[in-house]
Description:
Chain A is an alpha+beta fold. Chain A has helices at residues 7-23, 26-34, 40-52, 71-83, 91-104, 107-118, 233-243, 251-267, 279-307, 314-337, 367-373, 384-396; strands at 124-127, 143-147, 150-161, 168-174, 185-191, 197-202, 211-222, 226-227, 269-270, 273-274. In chain A, strands 1-4-5-8 form a 4-stranded mixed beta sheet. Chain A has a 4-stranded antiparallel beta sheet with strand order 2-3-7-6, with no helix packed on it. In chain A, strands 9-10 form a two-stranded antiparallel sheet.
Amino acid sequence: xxxxxxxxxxxxxxxxxxxxxxxxxxxxxxxxxxxxxxxxxxxxxxxxxxxxxxxxxxxxxxxxxxxxxxxxxxxxxxxxxxxxxxxxxxxxxxxxxxxxxxxxxxxxxxxxxxxxxxxxxxxxxxxxxxxxxxxxxxxxxxxxxxxxxxxxxxxxxxxxxxxxxxxxxxxxxxxxxxxxxxxxxxxxxxxxxxxxxxxxxxxxxxxxxxxxxxxxxxxxxxxxxxxxxxxxxxxxxxxxxxxxxxxxxxxxxxxxxxxxxxxxxxxxxxxxxxxxxxxxxxxxxxxxxxxxxxxxxxxxxxxxxxxxxxxxxxxxxxxxxxxxxxxxxxxxxxxxxxxxxxxxxxxxxxxxxxxxxxxxxxxxxxxxxxxxxxxxxxxxxxxxxxxxxxxxxxxxxx
Amino acid sequence: xxxxxxxxxxxxxxxxxxxxxxxxxxxxxxxxxxxxxxxxxxxxxxxxxxxxxxxxxxxxxxxxxxxxxxxxxxxxxxxxxxxxxxxxxxxxxxxxxxxxxxxxxxxxxxxxxxxxxxxxxxxxxxxxxxxxxxxxxxxxxxxxxxxxxxxxxxxxxxxxxxxxxxxxxxxxxxxxxxxxxxxxxxxxxxxxxxxxxxxxxxxxxxxxxxxxxxxxxxxxxxxxxxxxxxxxxxxxxxxxxxxxxxxxxxxxxxxxxxxxxxxxxxxxxxxxxxxxxxxxxxxxxxxxxxxxxxxxxxxxxxxxxxxxxxxxxxxxxxxxxxxxxxxxxxxxxxxxxxxxxxxxxxxxxxxxxxxxxxxxxxxxxxxxxxxxxxxxxxxxxxxxxxxxxxxxxxxxxx
Amino acid sequence: xxxxxxxxxxxxxxxxxxxxxxxxxxxxxxxxxxxxxxxxxxxxxxxxxxxxxxxxxxxxxxxxxxxxxxxxxxxxxxxxxxxxxxxxxxxxxxxxxxxxxxxxxxxxxxxxxxxxxxxxxxxxxxxxxxxxxxxxxxxxxxxxxxxxxxxxxxxxxxxxxxxxxxxxxxxxxxxxxxxxxxxxxxxxxxxxxxxxxxxxxxxxxxxxxxxxxxxxxxxxxxxxxxxxxxxxxxxxxxxxxxxxxxxxxxxxxxxxxxxxxxxxxxxxxxxxxxxxxxxxxxxxxxxxxxxxxxxxxxxxxxxxxxxxxxxxxxxxxxxxxxxxxxxxxxxxxxxxxxxxxxxxxxxxxxxxxxxxxxxxxxxxxxxxxxxxx
Amino acid sequence: xxxxxxxxxxxxxxxxxxxxxxxxxxxxxxxxxxxxxxxxxxxxxxxxxxxxxxxxxxxxxxxxxxxxxxxxxxxxxxxxxxxxxxxxxxxxxxxxxxxxxxxxxxxxxxxxxxxxxxxxxxxxxxxxxxxxxxxxxxxxxxxxxxxxxxxxxxxxxxxxxxxxxxxxxxxxxxxxxxxxxxxxxxxxxxxxxxxxxxxxxxxxxxxxxxxxxxxxxxxxxxxxxxxxxxxxxxxxxxxxxxxxxxxxxxxxxxxxxxxxxxxxxxxxxxxxxxxxxxxxxxxxxxxxxxxxxxxxxxxxxxxxxxxxxxxxxxxxxxxxxxxxxxxxxxxxxxxxxxxxxxxxxxxxxxxxxxxxxxxxxxxxxxxxxxxxx
Lengths: 398, 398, 373, 373
C-alpha cells in the first residue's frame, strides 16, 4: 500500500505543470474558470497545442501517434489539466472513436481516420441516443439498408453533443430487423456534409444549446464506412460503454468545483460574516469534501488496478454514480452559496466573446446554469439507474 | 380551513387530561417515560382503569360497549394518553379483533367474544406472519383441514407480539390449496391452551423477547371459531391492514420521543456546553421537528377526512412510511445524544421490577435498545417497501 | 378542525385554474418574448385575484393565509410568472402602513393598473431582513435617499416601489429602518433590469441622492422592521404555496411520463425502483402541503409562533423542491432537461423559489435559534 | 502508487480470517456466556496479531497504519469482540512514552498474558480528548489520584490501566494532562463492570485518593495531550477498519439473503428497488474503504493533516455504518432483528463504533473547524 506517486509519475506531473504554465493561454483558462462557453476555435487551438507535444491522445499507443500512457499517467494528465482550468479534450474522436477504430477497424480505416483525428481534420460527434431509446440502446430505430456499395440511412438521433461543430458522426444503426434487437445493429461512420442530414439544436434548461437532434433522410453512406462486422455493432457499443469512458469519476472537475465553492462561500457574507463560517453551511461543504477525498482514493484504486492490467468492471459503474452525485451536490451548494444573485439569468453573458457585465459577482453568473446543465451527468453515459442495475446484477449473481 | 379543535373537541380533551391526572398511576407513567418494559399486570390494570370510564374501546360503537368516537376523538385520545405517558392499549383485541368481529362475525361470536375483550377475560394475540411469508401474506402455509366440526391446524406463526401473555390467538390459515393463493385463506380463533400449541420466544436485537414463534401441531379448533366465510379470510386481512390500523402515523409517540431527545440534548454536555447548543446537533433536531410539525398536520388531514366519512386510502400508507421514518430518526438521534453512555447494555435493568442502578444517566439506559427495537416500525404492519408499492400503484394507475 | 376549502375559495381556485390554463403561454416566457403577460395580468385583476390578497377593510375581499395559499398554489400549478408576490409584499406594506394618500393607490393596484415592487434586499444583506445599508437622511421636510437594492423582482416594471432605508442605527439593527413609497421616475434612480431564471424580471436599483418629499415616508420613522417581517411572513406563505403548485405540476408531469414512456418493453413506471422513488416524492409533497397549511393557519399568530412556522415551512418546502426538481428531471431523462418540454420551466421556477426569502439552510438555522430562544 | 497488500500482510489477513472463523463463537457472545474468548485471545497472541500492532523497535513486527487496517478489518469481519483496540490505545501509549520498566510490560502484552485498558473518558468529557477533570496531585515522591472514568472498555478485565489525570490547568486545557500506568488493584479504586451492546465489557472506574508511586507516571508531567491524540488517531484507524469489516460482512449476509429469500414467487434480490438500494450500499462501503485507506496512509503525516483524515474518516465511516445497519436490517425484514441470526450482532457492534472516539456529527464539525484553521 502506497498512496503517493512514484518518482517517474511525479516527474511526469512536474513536466505537465511546466507545460501548462507555458502553453495554456490565460484567456482560455479564465473562460473555463468562469464557466463561459468555448468556441469551436478555442477547442481546436487547444487540441493543436497538445498535439504539438504528442499529448492530445496520450493514451493511444505510440504506433498510432499516442504517447502510450497507462491509466495512472492518463489520470495525472486529467488531474493536472483540470486543475489548470484547461479546456476538456473533446472526447468524441480522441477518447471514443479512436480506440474503437484501433480495436475493430480495418487497416485502411485506421490509416485513413486516425491521423485526421489527431491533426484536427475531422471533428466527430456521436450518434447513439434516439428519441425513445435512451438507456435502452438496443431499441434504436434508425435504419441502414444496404443498396449496392452504400447504406441508405433513415431516422433520427438525439442528444448529439456539439453536432453543430462536427463534420462527421459515428452512428449505431439498425441493419437487420429480425432476431434479438441487439443482434441487428451496426456501427457506421457518416459525413455530416452528406445530403439528407439536418441538425437542429435543442435548448436545454440551462439556456444553452450544446446538444442537437440529427435527422437522416435517405443519406447514402459508402459501405466501406462500416466499422467491424455488419450486425455486430452492439459489441462495439458495449466496449465503448465499459472500456473507454475517460475520467468517469470526474475527480478533477469536482475538486475544481469544490475549490470554487469555497471561494464563493468565503466571499459571500451572511449575518455580516463570510458564509463559510456559518456552521451549517460549512458542514455541508465538509460533507462533500470528505466524500470527495474518499472518492479520489476510490478512483486511484481503480486507475491503479487498470494500470496493472485489470479490466474495469463494476468499479466504473460505482465511480459513475458516486462521481456524478458529488459533482451535482457541489453544483447545488454553489448555486445556494450565491444567494439571490443566482436568480438573474443573463444567458448571453455566458456566450463565447460576450462582454456583458455580470449582474452580481462574476462567480454567481454561471451558478444556476451549471447546476441545471450538470443534471445531465446522472442521465447520460448510461444513466445512474442503469449503472445501479449493472452493479446489482454483478453483486447478486456473483 | 381551520386548524384548531371545536369547542366540543376541546372539552373532550380537557376531560381526558383531568382523567389522566387523576387515574394514571405515576409508577406506570414513569416506566413508560423511561422506556422500561411493562408487565402483564401493568397492562391489565390500565385497561381496567380505562374500561371503568368506557374508554378502553372508545372507537367501538356504543351498542358493543364503546363510546362511539369518531376519528378526531380517537386521535385526541391517542394524543393525550401518549403525552401523559400512559401505556399504549394492547391493540390485538381492542383495535384489531373487535372491529373484525363487528364487521365479519356472527351474532353469536359478537355476543360471546366482544364483552370478554372489554373486561379483560381474553388476551388476544395475532397469528399472521409465518417464516417465509412476511410482507407476502398470501403465501402463508399454516393449514386448517376440516375434520367434522373441527379444523385441524398445523404450521407455524412468527413475530407474534406478546404471545407469552396471550390466551387466545386469531390466525390466518390455509383451508384450500387449489386456486389463487389469496382465495384459500380463512380467519380462525384459537385457544392458546389447546393441546399442540407451543410458544417460543425470539430474542431480538434490542435484547428483548416480546415477539414469539407459535407452533401448531394437530391443534383441533371448533368450526364455530371460523370468522366470516371459509376461504374468504383474505378479505378480513385486507380490511385489517387498511382500515383498522390505529394511530398509524405515531405522531404522539414521535412528539414524546422528540421532547425526550431535547431534554437529553439539554442535559448532555459537549465542549462544556449543552449539546443542544451545538449548531449541527440543533440542526438535526430542527429537521426532525419541522418534519414532525408537517406530519402532525398530514395526520390531522387524514383523521379529519376519516371523521367526515372518507375511507382511508393511500394516505394511510404515506403516514405509515413517513411516520415510521421520523420516529426511527428521532431514536437514532437520541442514541447519538447519549454519547458513550449509549454503549453499556444492561438489558435486565429494563425488565419490569428491576431496580438495577443505571450505569450513566437514566435516560441513556434504553436509548440503544429503543433504536434497535424500533427498526421494526418500518418492517411490520406491511413493510415500508410494500407501502411504497401500494402508493405507486394507486398513483400510476389513477 | 376542518381542512376543506370554503366554497368561495374553491370557486376562486377553480376559476383561477381555468383562467391560467387559458392565458399562460409558457413558450413565450421561455423564449423570452415577455417576462410575463399583460393580458394575464388584466384577467387576474378582473377576476378579483389581486383583490383576494387584501382584506375587506383594505379594499379587497380576502387577505387571509388560506386566500394566499389558494391563489399562489394555482399560480404555481400554471407556472405563471406574473409578479403577484410583489403585490403581497409592497401592497401589503402600503395597506398596513400607508397614509390615506398612499393607500389610495391600492384601488389601482387591485384593478390591475398599477405595478409594484419591494426594494429591500441589498448586495450584502443576503436573506437578513434587518440588514439595511441604504440610507435616508432628513432634508428639510423631505428625505434624501442613497443606496443600492439588488435583485428587485419587477423592479424595472413597477410603477411604484416600496424602498427600505436606514434612518438611524447600525447596519444590522432592527431599529432605525424606514420605508418610502417612491414612483419609478424619481431623480437619481438608476435601474438595470434583466430576466430571472424562473421567469419574470428583476433589477438592480441604485439611488444616488434621490430627493423624496416628506409624504413619501411609509409608516413610522425607524419602525419598519416589524411590518417588514410580517409582510415577509405573508409572502413566504404565498411563495411556498406557489412552490407547492409547481411541485404538484412537476409531479403530475412525471407521473404521466412514467406511464407513457416505454423502455425495455414496458412503461418505465413499472420499474420498482422508480415506483418507490416516486412514492417517496409523493409523500414529501404531501408533507410540503401540510407545512404550507401550517403557515397559512398561523399568519395571525403571535410573532414568535408565526416565525417558527415561517422558517419551518420555508425549510421543508425548499428541501422538497430540490427533491422534486432533481427526481423529476432524472426520471424524465434527457427530455426533462429541454426547454421545449414544460418541465424545464417548472424546474427552473421551482428551484429559484429557494433563492428568495431565505433558503433551506438559512431557515433551518433560524428555526433552531427561534426554538432555543 | 500501489493499493496491493504486501505478501506479509496478505498472509496475516488470510491467517487471521481462518483463525477467527474457527474461534469466534458469536452465540456465546450474544448469550452473554463470555464478553470475549480467552482462547481466541491466546490464539491471536500466538499468531502474532498483537505483535503486529507494534513496530519492531517497540518489540513487535508491524505497527504501521496498514497493519492496523488489516488486523482490524478481519476482527470486524468476524464480529470478534476481543479487546484489541485497548492494546492500540494503552499499549501504544506505553510503547511511546514508557520508561524502561514500563515498556517491559509490553512483552507480556504481545504474548497475550497481560490485558490493558485506557481510562480516559469521563462523564462530562463526551468525545473531547482534552477535557479531563480527574486530578492527580503530587505527594512526596508519588501522586494521589482522584476522579471518575466512564465507559472504560475492558476496564474490569485489564491487568494494567493507563489513566489520564489533570496535574495542572483548567478542565479543558490541552496543557496539564498527565498519564499514569496503574495496576488494577490499587487502593481506592472502585470498579463497576458491565456488558457493552456490541460485545465485550466496559466499566466505570472511580479513584478516590488513590496513592501512586512516582514511577507510575507515564511520560512527561502535563504533556500527555499530544501523545493521546496520536494514539487516538491510530485507534480511529483501527476502529474504522473494524467497522469496515463489520460492514463487509453485513453486506455479504444481506446479499446472500437477497439471493435466497423468495417473496411473491421470486428471490427478493430480483426486485429493482432493493437492487438499487443494495448498489448504493455497495458504493458507500467502497467509499468507506477508501476513507480507511486514506487514514491508514496518513497516520505518520504532520499533525494537522493527520487529524483532517481522522475526522474525515470517522465521519464517513460513521455515516456509512448507519446506512449499512439500517438497510441490512430492513432488507432482511424481521429475521434481521433477531439475535439468533448473526446480523444482529454485527449490526449492534457496528452501531456502537459510532459511540467511540467521536460520532459522525462530532467529527463533521471538527473537520470543518480543522479545515478553517
